[in-house]
Amino acid sequence: MADCMQEWPEPVVRVQAVAESGLAAIPGCYVKPPRDRPAAQHLATAGVGGDEDVLQEPLDTSIPVIDLGELVAAAAAADEGRMGLITEAVAAACREWGFFQVVNHGVAPELMRAAREAWRGFFRLPITAKQQYANLPRTYEGYGSRVGVRKGGPLDWGDYYFLHLAPEAAKSPDKYWPTNPAICREVSEEYGREVIRLCELLMKVMSASLGLEESRFQEAFGGSECGVCLRANYYPRCPQPDLTLGLSAHSDPGVLTVLLADEHVRGLQVRRADGEWVTVQPARHDAFIVNVGDQIQILSNSVYKSVEHRVIVNAREERISLALFYNPRGDVPIAPAPEVVTQERPSLYPPMTFDEYRAYIRKNGPRGKAQLDGVEQGQAAGTPPENK
Question: Could you tell me the CA-to-CA distances from 229 to 163, 171, 317 in Å, in that order?
Answer without folding.
Answer: 6, 9, 26
